């Protein structure tokens, strides 16, 4: 799977003179060679980086899509010559479109003078992942995320800035005084209160208002207000062993694998089915087995590093989840304390109590799997359950 072509254009003339402010609109056409998932962002000459977006190309759908963004310049009444905008593909591999050049000449005003200016502005989350990737918090809430921003100016002067967020919140305007060319650090925080929700692809940016308009990179993070316990293992060394009561279980993979609670599953009635489960784990290169404060198979799932497995395996037993971000749960009238996890009118999974139903819904909303899959059985005694994309 890969990108075969990217074209970017401005939707009107690239050189505008007249009344300000003015909005420039940009369109990029992305072509791929088959089904898969891409991630992209917009970058520009003034260090702006938009939040990371995701597009999924599916079988039978067009392999070409248009994405749009816009920029408004001249809100301060001044001209902005020699700008550019560009689309950056982040995955499956980093690819850049051609740069689109554009200029704005505001009537009666000269270009922004090259005197005191902010030359760079960046942000990061204090608890970022060790490899610098998107930070994923999983645990109890309330939880507070701390962010720091670094503003660099070329001399003495006053900088006015504010923090902006993905929930459309804009903080108060703050003032930062520079006595010389230097870099200064500013901070903010974002509190998440709900103890049963998940928040995906949230972001924070630092916006410079004066002496010129400038916006930082988007610091992106995920927050899952749901504790999970994950057991890591080496998929290369797992195997099937027979238990004393003539069941078959997955073992090996390092000492951690033996610590998995038997009630969580990974036991099978036949060696053939157990071997199939091992082949599926190795095929997807799964690296950890997770549960959410419950020793129930239907509340367990596998991850590949920090995400779900992706792809397919021959003759899988899977239920399609069409709208994972909108799943809900309903109490069954025919069975006391049983709940159905619903994707529209379709039952995806069943839970034995309301607490389990809430946790399942939150798992699905956070990881957004396209499929819920089982090996051998759909009950809580035998087999293996896994989500995948």
The tally of beta strands, per DSSP, is 30
Tally of DSSP helical segments: 2
Low-confidence stretches: none
Sheet with the most strands?
6 strands, mixed
The overall pLDDT, averaged over residues, is: 82
What's the Cα radius of gyration?
A: 26 Å
Structural class: mainly beta
- What is the straight-line distance between the termini? 15 Å
Helix content: under 10%
Q: Determine the strand fraction and express it as a percent band.
A: over 45%
The geometry reads as elongated
Describe the overall structure:
- The chain has 389 residues and is mainly β.
- Helix content is 7%, strand content 49%.
- The strands form 8 sheets. Strands 2, 4, 5, 7, 8 and 9 form a 6-stranded mixed β-sheet that branches. Strands 11, 13, 14, 16, 17 and 18 form a 6-stranded mixed β-sheet that branches.
- The radius of gyration is 26 Å and the shape is elongated.
- The relative contact order is 0.10.
